Amino acid sequence: MNILVSAASRNGSTAEIADAIARILRGRGLSVTVAAPESVADVGDYDTFVLGSAVYTGHWLPPARALVERIEPLRGDRPVWLFSSGPVGDPKRTFVQQMGVDPAELAALREQTDAREHRMFAGRLVSERASFAQRVSLHVFRGLEGDFRDWRAIEQWADEIADTVVDSG
User: Fold this and answer.
1) What ranges in 9-57 are assigned the alpha helix state H?
2) CB under 8 Å to 17, separation ≥6 — which residues?
3) Model pTM greater than 0.85?
């Protein structure tokens, strides 16, 4: 069983989530490859997929969407899990809740992959890695800077994936 864990990430935060998921899966004795979506040469090499993307303005990044299109012909043959990373800031704030809505293309992504599940995880936004527009947002909308990722929730989800893969293998 060879599992691909791949995530499109602008500033590395979503890639770090992919690395954490891979670490948990490997800890359960599974064979895991971690690769950026644009570096995956042959999707046929994998039996299982865990695919993710940072979400910007409500959308997955193009490299992650392109990888989904490349695995679409395998739909139904191999299990797929999807995750997104995006909302930053205090989840009680309306503005942050709006960031936490599912990506606009989630229904299509699920259909293309027959995904077993999708999870949305909070993200990280720090000024030294932020684009100019993001730095302006950090100034205008106070309280968005920081690391809001819930590592326990991420690791728990990876354990659930491992349970399913081990039980079916």
Assistant:
1) 13-27
2) 7, 52, 83, 85, 121, 149, 154
3) yes
